[in-house]
Amino acid sequence: MKAFSRIYLVLIFLLLYAPILVLIVFSFNEKGSFAAYTGFSFKWYRELFRDSTALQSLRNSLLLAISSAAIATVIGMFAALGLDRMRLRWLKNSIKAVTNIPMMNPDIVTGVSMLLFFVAVGGILQKINGNIDLIGFPSMLIAHVTFSLPYVILSILPRFRQLDPSLREAAMDLGCTPAQSFFKVEFPHILPGIVTGMIMAFTLSLDDFVISHFVSSPDFVTLPLYIYNQTAHRVKYSMYALCTLIIFVMVIMLLLVNFVSGIGERGKRKKETV
After folding, report:
1. Is there a contact between 197 and 158 (Cβ–Cβ < 8 Å)?
2. What per-residue string of b and e applies to 125-153 under the rule 16 or more CB within 10 Å gives b?
């Protein structure tokens, strides 16, 4: 039975990571073909840094991901705070259900509804001021914040539930205002949830294609849209190099997060022993 479970685990990992390994290996293929490996070369990485359109789409993706993650994290933190303070159970459950709708909806439904919304609002704004164009970066930013927000709230809300309410009350008894007690007592406790939610929102935004496809404009193209547009012809092999670089950056970020969390846990253990 143990042998069968190990074989099953190996097969699962192969299915998950074999395509990524093939992508990384052939991004260094000199000929630029999956038919044969002709030799190790950085040719496609050099081509990547000469492709100004690809680099611009990467910058757009990073700008959008960082902006939407930051906004969603701030809104999600205070939304989780409000849900934690709410006393009416039926109202709390109703708001949580409405908040989870973007997460439960299929991406294509969210994308189409967002498109119709922005077209309607854009038409109203153009009647007021013809120079306002909502489709593009503003529409993509609003859409990415919308579908990232439930994940941020779900990451932060359990941290509030784990916190002892008496700590907040003790801080206010000692002279802290509600704002001071939040930032001095509660914020350090929910910080891991905030970081987790921000990383998740950043990853979701960087990876999104379906919703971005509906609410984007030719003036602001993200990396997934740029790669998709190439499939009408032929995907450049420099894109394999770009994907490899993104994979390495993500792996380094995960290692850093685990390293920092490990240091924090060791510090807590030392304080407890002392």
Report:
1. no
2. eeeeeeeeebbbbbbbbbbbbbbbbbbbb
Tell me how far apart the alpha carbons of residues 84 and 186 are, in angstroms, rounded to a whole number.
12
- Report the 3 state secondary structure along 127-167: HHCCCCCCCCHHHHHHHHHHHHHHHHHHHHHHHHHHCCHHH
pTM for this model (two decimals): 0.81
State how far the Cα of 113 lies from the Cα of 201, in Å rounded to an integer.
Answer: 21
In 3D, which of 10, 6, 20, 9 has the Cα closest to residue 240?
20
pLDDT at 106: 85
Give the residue carrying structure tokens 């709390």.
Answer: 92
Q: What is the per-residue pLDDT across 136-146, written as a single tens digit (0 to 9) for each?
A: 888 899 999 99
The pLDDT value recorded for residue 64 is: 93
pLDDT at 72 (0 to 100)? 93
Question: What is the Rg, in whole angstroms, of the alpha carbon atoms belonging to the chain?
Answer: 23
CB 137 within 8 A of CB 183: no
Contact 159, 197 (CB under 8 A): no
List, for the chain, all residue ranges whose pLDDT scores fall below the cut of 50.
none
Give the per-residue pLDDT at 65. 92
Check if the beta carbon of residue 51 is closer than 8 Å to that of residue 238.
yes
Take residue 134 and report the two structure tokens written for it. 């909502």
pLDDT tens by residue, 96-125: 888 888 888 888 888 888 888 888 887 777
Is the Cβ–Cβ distance between 238 and 54 less than 8 Å?
yes
Give the separation between CA 67 and CA 71, rounded to whole angstroms.
6
Determine phi and psi for 120, rounding to 5 degrees. Answer: -65, -50
The pLDDT of residue 67: 94
> 3-state DSSP call for residue 28?
coil
